[in-house]
Amino acid sequence: MASAGATTAFEATVTALAGRQGRTIALLVLDGVGGYRTAHRASELAMARTPNLDELAATSALGLHDPVRRGITPGSGAGHLGLFGYDPLRYRVGRGTFTAAGLGVELAEGDVVARANICTLSEDGTIADRRAGRMSTEEAIEVCDLVNEQSFGDVQVRLVVEMGHRALLLLRGAGLSPDIADTDPQRTDVPPLAPAPLSEAGVLAAETVGTVLARCRNVLAHRKSGNFLLLRGFDTRRELPPFPERYQVRAAALATYPMYRGITRLLGFETHHVRNLETAVQALPELVRDGVEFVYVHVETPDLAGEDGDFEAKKTAIEAVDALVPAIRASGVEVLAVTGDHATPAHLSAHSWHPVPVLVHGGTAPADGIAAFDEVSCRQGSLGRFPAYELMPQLLAAAGRLAKFDGQRHGS
């Protein structure tokens, strides 16, 4: 199994200092919550009515994080790795690996996986809709079944539905490598990209993917919507340093979408499937009573609205989360962080490079006295602007879970 990265001196030091008994931590991630003020209006977060988050902000430490580094637009996997304290530039894992873990697909050594979007091509071969109108999971199963009926010689090819238009492409056979460029150009009105090898090792897999896509074009030609695949995040089986061992906490994850359960499963969390945020919040008190020390709660709806370019829907999604903040605070969690894994401004209909608001409440976190939770207010907070992988040490410190550093060596 390939390792996804190497431990730095900073990471080794945080791990060595972790282990003290302390307060319970919850990390509430509003996927794609970030945006930015334009010349015409404020961001979705600033425009949303969020009395509970604003009240919480007044007694919290505020700041902004860069999911990867300044100017870099992250995918959701990289954004989450940063939030969990794994520098995405060092721990490089493709979307396909996370999706496979979330779906419970066991990868053998040498398997190649990729995230697949079931998309719609126009008659001229250009991309009309990258998500096929956000087709239902049931319709996606029909599409995948048509492809899975095909034979591809010595390479086993399997499409597994994730949710809605999302699926996993699995290639299994000798001599395969994940060194393949994405075929998803991440925009419409252009043709899909060709599956190009990134090295000599990737030639066979790229040729196989080319054959798969050509076959897809044929067997799905009768469909006006959902008639092709866009692929990204090629990777293979990966190993990550376990989160519970790194930070000496019992960790649990509450998430609806498989990919996010996949990230936490690879990191060693106790992973729970919940139907929606309401059921996640209902599960929190029992997890805390049961001795869970770190709980991650994922909310997908702001990102979906942002990607659809729906400013009002993203506002509404944020307001729905705000309504549940009192229940989260009453759950027994002692340190609460609220943030996102990246920005998804509705007027861009895509992820962006902009810094993401973050709030840390409770324990020894300062109270900045800023009674608003949005990008402009968070810019004034005591946390400042920092790379996302520095969030976890701050949460552990606020929870009293890091020992004092006296300059002793902790490895590299």
Automatic annotation (TrEMBL):
It comes from the Bacteria. InterPro entries: Alkaline_phosphatase_core_sf (IPR017850), Metalloenzyme (IPR006124), Pglycerate_mutase_ApgM (IPR004456), Pglycerate_mutase_ApgM_sf (IPR042253). It catalyses: (2R)-2-phosphoglycerate = (2R)-3-phosphoglycerate. The keyword Isomerase applies. Belongs to the BPG-independent phosphoglycerate mutase family. A-PGAM subfamily. PANTHER family: COFACTOR-INDEPENDENT PHOSPHOGLYCERATE MUTASE, METALLOENZYME DOMAIN-CONTAINING PROTEIN. Pathway: Carbohydrate degradation. It comes from Amycolatopsis vancoresmycina DSM 44592. SUPFAM superfamilies: Alkaline phosphatase-like (SSF53649). Residues 24-393 form the Metalloenzyme domain. Its EC number is 5.4.2.-. GO terms for molecular function: metal ion binding; phosphoglycerate mutase activity. Gene3D superfamilies: Alkaline Phosphatase, subunit A, Metalloenzyme domain. This is Cofactor-independent phosphoglycerate mutase.
